[in-house]
Design brief:
binds magnesium ion, Rossmann fold, 165 residues, binds adenosine-5'-triphosphate, alpha/beta
């Protein structure tokens, strides 16, 4: 079920595979400098979504949760990098400033789990995706774009979903 609003988009996923496929579509759109800010429930499906994102972006690398390592980097043949950060163990934006997110964003897209913890350290223009646990296999994914480029991504995603591709 897809709920459509002016620029937000809400999606109910009924399986991990469905969440991965949604990630695949988003990943295929990602460019250098794009920021995905993932927020929401523990076990909400953020890392599962990133598995799709990384594959859709074009990397064969295996995606694991960076909860303990803080940041994972994925590669693809054109030398771009996709950085996957988990802010769960950070205390706040002050911890993120030391990571030099700008350097990461110069090399490729950035995907952040628990982005709300370091919100003030993230670029204002970003696509926030909020994950809500609804049941054993059900999750709600709410897309909230901030800025022109994220809004365009949501517009493209909505169009693709409506076309059923
Ligand atoms: N519809 C669904 N979408 C995503 N994951 C689902 C769904 N249904 C069941 N799952 C399962 O829920 C778990 C989600 O775990 P995942 O690590 O992706 O969540 P997370 O939000 O990254 O957790 P954390 O808060 O620990 O970072 C996985 O085991 C996945 O298989
Ligand atoms: Mg996770």
């Amino acid at each position: 079920m897809v709920i459509l609003r002016a620029d937000a988009l809400e999606f109910i996923s009924r399986s991990a595979g469905q969440t991965r496929r949604l990630g695949l579509r988003v990943g295929a759109m990602l460019r250098t400098g794009d920021v995905l800010a993932l927020e929401g429930d523990l076990g909400g499906g953020k890392t599962t979504f990133v598995q799709g994102v990384v594959a859709g972006w074009g990397s064969p690398d295996r995606v694991t949760s960076p909860t303990f390592v803080l940041v994972n980097v994925y590669h693809r043949r054109d030398e771009q990098r996709l950085y996957h950060l988990d802010a769960y163990r950070l205390r706040g934006p002050q911890d993120a400033w030391a990571l030099d997110l700008d350097a990461m964003l110069a090399e490729g897209p950035l995907v952040v789990e628990w982005a709300d913890v370091i919100a003030a350290a993230l670029p204002a223009e970003r696509l926030t995706i909020r994950f809500t646990w609804l049941g054993e296999a059900q999750r709600a994914l709410a897309f909230h774009p901030q800025g022109a480029r994220p809004r365009e991504m949501v517009r493209q995603l909505r169009a693709a979903i409506l076309r059923g591709v």
